[in-house]
Inverse folding.
């Protein structure tokens, strides 16, 4: 489920369109004297489709408040994120993102390939604005860990210009 949101303090003149995806809603139950009491946790991914993406995790007694909390956290953290290095509608090179027991391998793909990814990883890549990519996940398939591993992998990307500047050589 994707939604677009406008964001801007200057009355809408310089709006950034944010796209958000609800990746997972978990239901948790605790047993009390009168039965079971349920609470909900929502995992949401927010991105501007031009290289910035982050996640939010919110918990509440009902589903809508948990999603709103997750959205608020994701939007706050998105402002502090640096842009992902992209080459057109794909990534510049192969990279492996790791978090906990989850590993996500991201491989650039040619035009027309699409986003070949499983749940969790797909939402992060779509929110980031990547249109052609191949992925493979290894290890844990916990959605929260997959989202974190994918974001770590995207943050590890470097363009040719970045690498040349770091090495002190000219292209």
């Amino acid at each position: 489920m994707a939604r677009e949101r406008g964001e801007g303090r200057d009355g809408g003149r310089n709006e950034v369109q944010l796209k958000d995806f609800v990746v997972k809603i978990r239901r948790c139950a605790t047993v009390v004297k009168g039965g079971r009491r349920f609470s909900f946790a929502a995992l949401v991914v927010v991105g501007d489709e031009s290289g910035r993406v982050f996640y939010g995790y919110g918990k509440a007694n009902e589903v809508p408040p948990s999603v709103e909390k997750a959205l608020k956290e994701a939007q706050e953290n998105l402002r502090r994120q640096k842009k992902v290095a992209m080459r057109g509608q794909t990534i510049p090179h192969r990279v492996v993102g790791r978090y906990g027991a989850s590993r996500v391998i991201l491989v650039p793909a040619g035009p027309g390939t699409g986003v070949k990814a499983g749940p969790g990883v797909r939402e992060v890549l779509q929110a980031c604005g990547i249109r052609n990519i191949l992925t493979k996940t290894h290890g844990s398939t916990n959605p929260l860990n997959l989202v974190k591993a994918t974001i770590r992998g995207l943050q590890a990307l470097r363009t040719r210009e970045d690498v040349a500047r770091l090495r002190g050589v000219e292209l």
Observations:
- The radius of gyration is 18 Å.
- Residues 7 and 73 are 14 Å apart (CA to CA).
- Strands lie at 2-7, 16-32, 35-47, 53-60, 95-99, 102-108, 115-116, 133-139.
- DSSP finds four helices and eight strands in the chain.
